[in-house]
Design brief:
Layout lengths: L3 H11 L3 H8 L2 H10 L5 E6 L5 H10 L3 E7 L7 H10 L13 E4 L13 E6 L9 H11 E10 L15 E5 L2 E3 L1 H7 L3 E5 L2 E6 L9 E8 L10 E7 L2
Bound molecules: S-adenosylmethionine (SAM).
S-adenosylmethionine (SAM) binds next to helix 1 and strand 2.
């Protein structure tokens, strides 16, 4: 059971909702509605780094049984069933007598792979989590694997983080023959993109074959080991060939 003071202290950083998500990755609820209107039920959604589950609970309240909701957190203390329910009750998204299915939660390090079957989601979303992932190219590959054929991923990820010093501001760095390959160019080669939202940038891609397969890991730096106030894991790659 999470201590009350801990729950409260972390809430601002772990309980962002759909409004904050949309500011970071665009109007993703419209994507859900488009699929529902086209007859897909349930729309299967995965949120990477769902924290206390506000986004999933808002969508549960809005779309009911027409949406199947799954969240991944690194550790149970980041948001388990009890924490998500408590957050939902406090926000008026769940009431004490509510017996409808709650979001399914899974736990683990995304860098080790996503604990889900191939082609099991229509939509993969994430806010304020990508920066913490190690093995970012592997995570890209894993997202593409769990997306269904016409699935879509939108991952909040600034290419250059404004609050980090220039040497470390680029958390996904790709080199080819001595030149930097901007992440947007790399994604575009594979049919993906970096797009702008009201608040920063996000990665947008579908079930792309070969995404990440052409990247060789060079080094990884947990920025907190340099300065405890710096957040993120910088992953450096070079292009094969
Ligand atoms: C700062 S919280 C953000 C939570 C929520 N998305 C929000 O914006 O309020 C970061 C989330 O990412 C998750 N996370 C961080 N590193 C992770 C990793 N390596 N694998 C899986 N989840 C991770 C944590 O469990 C936590 O839920």
């Amino acid at each position: 059971m999470i201590r009350d003071s801990h729950f409260r202290a972390k809430q601002p950083f772990r309980a962002r909702g759909v409004a904050e998500l949309s500011a970071r990755i665009g109007d993703v609820d419209a994507e859900i509605v488009r699929r529902l209107d086209a007859g897909t039920t349930p729309v299967r959604v995965l949120e990477l780094g769902c924290g206390y589950g506000s986004v999933l609970l808002e969508w549960r309240q809005r779309h009911g049984e027409r949406i199947a909701l799954t969240g991944l957190n690194r550790e149970e203390q980041d948001g388990d069933d009890a924490i998500v329910r408590r957050n939902g009750i406090e926000r008026g998204l769940v009431d004490a007598s509510d017996t409808a299915a709650m979001p399914a939660l899974a736990f683990g390090d995304a860098a080790d792979g996503l604990p889900f079957a191939d082609a099991s989601f229509d939509l993969v979303v994430s806010q304020v989590a990508w920066l913490y992932f190690g093995r970012k190219a592997h995570v890209l590959r894993e997202i593409a694997r769990v997306l269904d054929r016409d699935g879509v991923a939108r991952i909040d990820a600034d290419e250059i983080h404004p609050r980090l010093p220039p040497e470390y501001a680029r958390l996904f760095e790709i080199w080819h023959r001595g030149r930097l390959v901007p992440l947007g160019d790399y994604l575009a080669r594979h049919g993906g993109a970096i797009r702008r939202a009201d608040q920063g940038e996000y990665l947008a891609f579908g079930k792309l074959e070969g995404l990440g397969d052409d990247l060789l890991p060079v080094a990884e730096i947990d920025l907190a080991t340099i300065d405890p106030d710096w957040d993120g894991i910088k992953c450096i790659y070079r292009l094969r060939g």
